[in-house]
Request: fold
Amino acid sequence: MLDQFLEALNTSALRTVALGAAGLGLVAGAVGAFAVLRRQSLQGDMVSHAALPGVAAAVLFGFRAPVALIVGGAVAGWVAMLLVNGIARRSRVPFDAALGGMLAVFFGLGLVLMTYIQHHVPGASQQPLERYLFGQAALLRDPDLNLIACIGAAALVVLAAFWKELKVLSFDPDYAASLGLPVRTLDLLLTTLTVVAVVIGLKAVGVVLMTALLIAPAAAARQWTDRLGRVVLLSAGFGALAGAAGTMFGHLASEFLGGHKAVPTGPTIVLCATALVGFSLVFGTARGFVWQLRVFRKPAPEV
Amino acid sequence: MGEVMLVLVVVAAACAVPGCFLVLRRMALVSDAISHVLLLGIVLAYFAVRDVDSPWLLAGAAVTGVVTVALVEALQRTGRVKADAAIGLVFPALFALGVLLATVYARNIHLDIDQVLLGKPEYAANVRWHAGGVAVKPLYVMAAALGLNLVLAAAFFKELKLTTFDPGLAAALGFRPGVVHYGLMTVVSVTAVAAFDAVGPVLVVGFFVVPAATAFLLTDRLSVMLALAVLVGAAGAVAGTGLAFWLKASTAGTVAAALGVLFGLVFVFAPNRGLVAQAARRRRQRRAFHETMLAIHLFQHEHTTAEADEAAFAGLHHHLGWTAEQVAVVVGRAEWNGLVTRAGELLKLTDAGRTRARDVFGERGA
Reply:
């Protein structure tokens, strides 16, 4: 049995795919740390759903290259985020309602385009688009991998370049404004990074679950340390681990449990990330339950 | 098409009622979490009863929805995870489990996962369950949910209103906000279950939130807001279904998009609160401000030696720091509104203009 397992894991295709998933987990983890700290973790949920019409529109206009789909998704996600911010600022509709409503409206629009393509664009099988709902890492090819690497590296470079500004913004936006930092521009920068991290993960994790890859690694990392630099590094590491492990579990599930139908990788990646959160909540050395028990048990200093 | 449209009208109306309270209580995203987790509830209930047509699946799903809310709140109470992150951790995990179990184990129960998750109002119009020999259509379940929501909203209107707008006062008066909260969560969960076949777990948040948010921009009265939300939901369902048949596109998706368009129209054109009304109000205020500035300037220098210089039309742009064109426009409007009159080169305040200036100074101007 073990031999079978190892054999199933020992394919170069799987290694490619796991590498890709690890890469996007890394980027999502690093960017997600800021989203979680700023209490905007559900932004990613909205952005990933809202990317669907962009991806579908790219297909509708005849673009099939991975980069076109990513750009389409990013534009749609970005526009949706701007609309949500506009609605929250210019009306009394609360931010969370604007976020939830926009999520459903854009996702609905995406479904309309997808089904329209299915009926009206000859030769456009809906299959690749449906993969975007729950993710199928097995469909990652070398061009996808290169894209994840290039775009992800660019996002990380931007994060590093504006490290100090983003740090101040995350912990004390009012102080950042008083220092004369362009708060709204930086806000937009973080939103853009979130959009980028989300859209490169869509193919492997899918629009419905991509949000978890932004939130879970960051929430897990937060239990181990109080320093921003370490949170971001750990979060990126957890994200990469969840991506790689989730892809392998997905592959194993397809081989041994799924019969002839491929098991989507989005759910397995998300469950791995959630397991990391559970482990960290219990054993985390900054805020974990066990650690805190130990701190409380320490004998009081003698007076 | 008729029956599909009816299904969606009922779903939209049923969701709009609790949706109003979700929007007002800033809990819109809780409905998103609940609806996603229903899938896991359905799958688990299926493992228990082994019958895909059993009404127990619905009960199982509804319970899971409420359990999810409790789980999110428990995670928040540990203080280790913030409120938004708690939602974002719990529902993707449970949803992922649901999708995984459904794809791996529920292969042979005709559960087409993509269709289930995207909603198929066409299915909802068919007979689905058999309860005690009676054929039950999902449409009947939804109609029951709509009726239940309307009755509950009417029966507990006072409690809901008070706990929504002032939970502190409600608690002080003995209204138990916690009980009302979990009651509302149960209603949301049951409604999401009823809507599950028609719109799926992803889109349903739009049916809860968008009509309510639209109505919120149109009125300040809770009762009117509830009625308007139901109307907006129904209108979106009718328009969306029609459009979907014409485009041959996903019906539930088109209705969600149509609801978004309705919100957009109200957001731009709503009386008082729309973007157009806001812009018009700002323009009116800017004009009034400029005219008042002019009146104050003239008032300050009225009957002084400098009046010949300060009140001369040609020098105003210099004294007020405006451009010459601006001066011409403002003076023209002030004249039209009867605040000033032209006496050759000089501008003279009318009584109305003097009153306007005095009003600004209050006591000191008198």
